[in-house]
Amino acid sequence: MNTEILISELNFKGIRSSGPGGQHVNKTASKVEVSFDLENSHALSETEKERLRNKLASKITSEGIIMLQCGETRSQHRNKSIVIERLLVLLQQNLKVAKPRKKTKPSKGAIERRLKSKKQNALKKSNRRPPKID
């Protein structure tokens, strides 16, 4: 993933934001919406695109565009940097290849300790019962 090319491919849109700011939010477009065209990106290889399509299927539109918004602060510039950082983190986390899990078995000592503690608990609970009268 080439970050510089990816950032140059992003499309930004300013939207009127809700939240803190009072009258200010009614006049300015401080919320930022970023859209990233996954299908036509030159920053990602085909294998990376395929991995992202599979992992981010719920976040991708039918046209293959990933959209994120940020309206946390009153500043459009800060919102823009926050949303870029979020997008990069989202892509980096979903491009990681998970290591295959190695199957392991508990050691014989661990199995013996578990069975011994189970027997002790069973004995403790059986001692709590009233004696059987025949």
UniProtKB/TrEMBL annotation:
One of the record's GO molecular function terms: ribosome binding
Q: Which UniProt keywords apply?
A: Hydrolase
Cite the PROSITE patterns for this sequence: RF_PROK_I
Q: Which residues form the Prokaryotic-type class I peptide chain release factors domain?
A: 16-32
Note down the stretches annotated as region Disordered: 98-134
Report biased composition (Basic residues) as residue ranges: 115-134
- Name any Gene Ontology BP term: rescue of stalled ribosome
From which domain of life does this come? Answer: Bacteria
Might you give the EC number(s) for this enzyme?
Answer: 3.1.1.29
Task: Report any Pfam family annotated for this entry.
Answer: RF-1
Family recorded in the similarity comment = Belongs to the prokaryotic/mitochondrial release factor family.
- This one is known as Aminoacyl-tRNA hydrolase
